[in-house]
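Budget justification aside, the reviewers requested a transparent look at the raw inputs and outputs of the sequence design task funded under Objective 1. We therefore reproduce one unedited record. The lines immediately below are the structure tokens for a 457-residue chain.
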């Protein structure tokens, strides 16, 4: 089977790490099966959708390493939805309703008081042509409901109607259509809700697998019925658990919390985000995975747990450390240039400091430490100063390499009465101005003898 998946956010805000989870599940699934990935913007809500958000979403996806095979916008496809509406109307499966929200609420309360399920009672289906005409003469405009196939011919007599599918993530799933109201597909003003356009697109774009959050499970029951009403074979569905914060709260596109943009601005690496977004709530341990190809190997949709996937944003920095620690120079060369880090020493420098970074930008701090001209001004005690004087006199001649530090400190230890922290701390402070950092055996050759001597306090 030629696999086609899609990621279908509404462009109404910045995507967050939970949205990235959905995008990545689809992308990794497509990568594993040699399939296509469609980026579809569900922008039928013209008020809230913005091109600017769609552009930012594409930018965020690229940053994560997702490159869609095709990009489409629902706002350009209204003619297709109109055609589907005509088909449903002709089949008697889409009917006009005139109730106001207040009237609907009243009906709901009445049903509840009669111990009936609080679903729409299909009263509008019984309206005669005259009654409809007079409602319209009053100025009412209809909204349109899809008649769910939960009856045996008489829509006023609903009966249990299980829609079942084998979910890619959750296994056997069932939704009883008798427990649902006929969904509104078209609003009074003629605008579309998400339900129908999504199905029309999935049919026409040849989507074979719909992988999305488990907040869509009920929609799936309705949408499978819609696929059938439009004489199409439903795709395979997979519903993954949603990411929640450590305190159990959901994420929202509007709040901006944990948006991909804010994580990027905070110096979090794309693979740290991808590792956490995909591996949280799976059977795999959360580890820093270096590439999406490698992550695809670990990705198994059916292994995701059903309950909400709690994650701790603090893990992102831990993952970042590991990602940076394993990052080869070729992968960061250009990005380092942006921090002013370049030239013949850049690679050696990177290899020396990469194990000590929370964020790539921290490399700039170490670049300043090793680059010529920085003189850490530390106020040493007289004893330390005397010790350092002796130590600097023992600096080996060049050429220097990875062994120089060891040879030097051994000589210092033999000559002075110091060892351990009392020996290493003042040396580190004199050379870097900082209490801790990369191995001095790596930093020393980068400094060179002349620069090292210049740091003699
Ligand atoms: N626009 C929908 C959403 O963002 C898409 C759901 C789907 O994948 O079908 O929730």
């Amino acid at each position: 089977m030629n696999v086609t998946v899609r990621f279908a956010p509404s462009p109404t805000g910045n995507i967050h790490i939970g949205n990235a989870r959905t995008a990545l599940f689809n992308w990794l699934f497509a990568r594993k099966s040699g399939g296509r990935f469609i980026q579809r913007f569900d922008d039928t809500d013209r008020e809230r959708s913005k091109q600017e958000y769609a552009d930012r979403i594409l930018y965020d996806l690229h940053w994560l390493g997702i490159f869609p095979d095709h990009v489409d916008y629902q706002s350009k496809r209204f003619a297709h939805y109109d055609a589907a509406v005509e088909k449903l109307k002709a089949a008697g499966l889409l009917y006009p309703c005139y109730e106001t929200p207040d009237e609907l609420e009243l009906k709901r309360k009445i049903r509840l008081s009669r111990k009936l399920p609080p679903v729409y009672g299909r009263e509008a289906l019984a309206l005669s042509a005259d009654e409809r005409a007079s409602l319209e003469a009053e100025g009412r405009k209809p909204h349109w409901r899809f008649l769910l196939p939960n009856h045996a011919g008489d829509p006023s007599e609903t009966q249990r109607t299980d829609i079942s599918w084998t979910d890619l993530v959750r296994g056997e799933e069932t939704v009883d259509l008798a427990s649902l109201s006929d969904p509104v597909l078209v609003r009074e003003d003629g605008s579309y809700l998400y339900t129908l356009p999504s199905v029309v697109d999935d049919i026409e774009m040849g989507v074979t697998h719909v992988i999305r959050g488990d907040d869509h499970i009920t929609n799936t029951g309705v949408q499978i019925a819609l696929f059938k009403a439009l004489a199409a074979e439903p795709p395979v569905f997979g519903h993954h658990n949603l990411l929640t914060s450590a305190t159990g709260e959901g994420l929202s596109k509007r709040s901006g919390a944990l948006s991909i943009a804010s994580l990027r601005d905070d110096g979090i690496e794309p693979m740290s985000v991808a590792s956490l977004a995909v591996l949280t709530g799976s059977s795999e341990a959360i580890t820093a995975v270096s590439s999406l190809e490698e992550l695809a190997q670990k990705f198994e949709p059916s292994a995701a747990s059903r309950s909400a996937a709690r994650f701790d944003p603090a893990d992102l920095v831990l993952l970042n450390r590991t990602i940076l620690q394993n990052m080869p120079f070729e992968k960061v060369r250009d990005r380092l240039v942006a921090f002013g880090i370049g030239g013949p020493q850049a690679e050696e420098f990177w290899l020396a400091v990469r194990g000590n970074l929370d964020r790539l930008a921290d490399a700039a701090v170490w670049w300043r430490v090793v680059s010529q001209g920085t003189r850490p001004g530390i106020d040493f005690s007289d004893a330390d100063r005397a010790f350092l004087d002796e130590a600097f006199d023992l600096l080996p001649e060049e050429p220097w390499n990875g062994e120089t530090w060891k040879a030097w400190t051994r000589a210092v230890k033999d000559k002075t009465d110091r060892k351990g922290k009392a020996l290493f701390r003042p040396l580190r402070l004199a050379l870097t101005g900082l209490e801790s950092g990369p191995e001095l055996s790596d930093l020393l050759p980068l400094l060179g003898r002349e620069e090292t001597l210049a740091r003699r306090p």
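Residues 8-10, 42, 194, 198, 210, 212, 216 surround glutamic acid (CB under 6 Å). The first strand starts at residue 4 and ends at 7. Computational costs for records of this kind are itemized in the attached budget.
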